[in-house]
Structures are given as structure tokens and as C-alpha cells.
Hints:
The protein is 9% helix and 45% strand. The chain is mainly beta. Strands 1-6-7 form a three-stranded antiparallel sheet, with no helix packed on it. The chain has a three-stranded antiparallel sheet with strand order 4-3-8, with helices on one face. It has a two-stranded antiparallel ribbon with strand order 2-5.
Amino acid sequence: xxxxxxxxxxxxxxxxxxxxxxxxxxxxxxxxxxxxxxxxxxxxxxxxxxxxxxxxxxxxxxxxxxxxxxxxxxxxxxxxxxxxxxxxxxxxx
Length: 93
């Protein structure tokens, strides 16, 4: 087996959100669009969050801080917890 071989998942369960409060509750009457990518680790914590797209860069730090406190039940690959990539878009119109 190659050392770079990646196990294939027969049964995949995506991460299950446990605590994901809206980071934009304070924003009112504004157009806002923020897209964020992050990793949900096997510990259920958010890792490596970064903004992919944003209409209002001044709100990016608020969003990233809030997402950093989110908690998940981790994704499962054949019943084993695994890291998974997540993508989320916040929009206020």
C-alpha cells in the first residue's frame, strides 16, 4: 500500500452542528454577504477558518471569531471520526 493512500469511505455521515449561533445577529438593515471555509476536526471544533468572499471586510473578524466557537459532532467515515471541510455563506438582504 502506498503511504499516501487515502482510505475510502463506504458510509459517510457529515458533521452534525451542536452549537452554531448566528454571528451576524447584530447587523441590521444592511446588505451583507460573507462566505467562509473551515475544517470541522475530529474534536468537533472549527479549525483553519478563512473568508473566501465578503462584501464587508469590516465584519470578517466578527464572523471568524463567532465560527471559532461553533461545535459539531464530527463527520464519520465508516463509523470513525474524521476531519471534514465545510463551506458556509451568510447573507443579509
